[in-house]
Design a protein that fits this description.
single chain, 12 helices, D-Maltodextrin-Binding Protein, domain 2, five-stranded mixed β-sheet, about 325 residues, alpha/beta
Amino acid sequence: MKTFLYGLVGLALNVTSPAWADSFPSKQIRVVVPSEPGGALDLATRVVVEKMSEKLGQPIVVENLSGANSLIGTRAVKRARPDGYTLLAHTSTLTALPAMQADPGFDLARDFIGVGPMLRAPKVMIVSGEQQSANLKDFISHAKGSTLSYGSAGSGSTLHLSAARFLRGEKLDSIHIPYKGSAAAMPDVAAGRVSMMLSGYAGAIPYIQSGKLRVLGVTSDRRLAAAPDVPTFKEQGVDFSYYYWVGLLAPTGTPDTVVQRLSDAVQYATQSAEVRDRVRADGGELWNASPEEFTRYINKEAAETAALVSDLKIAKQ
């Protein structure tokens, strides 16, 4: 009986880890970036996979398959053979696509598993340099009883949804003003035509250094290495945090052994001085998570985003 049970266990392991998985990788790996070359996702991915290649002993090529709000590249990886040789690099935007798209062409929980996060970056709350509020709590206090406006990189973007969640949590009346990218919104925030915006720190640096924008807080759990003088929301008594993540995913069905080997390579890369210093200089931080932890995080974020989009009554595209 014991021999029979051991046989069943061995058979089960064979299903998740076929023989070829033991020698993975034995050839070039392709990482699909579903956006244009030269963008933030593309640049971050290239920095990380270069170090991953050292660990794995095989070349890793980045292929940009942009279009349809990242759906073309995402669907291509969904259809790929689940053998670890085709991976998807994506961001928090991935968890909003099922809620924002009428036909995304994939089911996040069913079609993908997380390999590992490459980095995460909080947002900073920016207001006009002439804004008189002393701090975040003061801004919130002055905003109560009136209607403020907030800008974002577009309807349904991570900047839109994260700001909406913050404002709803503080019970502030607001009007969303979408722009074609966060850079397009900053001049109006600086001029005071828009009350506030959540933004990536790196993109706002020129405006901050010139005094045209002020930073009232950062959405991380601790202060940014790149901006140690900026207090977190929580330090100021505001119970809100948010991180924009960049990570790698694989098609569901990729053997556990392969996923773990790829995850180890991601962690090897993110622990290197080259990657660490680059990420921190741009206002981000490293985030180590196992494939299981990352997968759970992604699916939880997708469910929360779907509920928020429904509450906000945002029309699907």
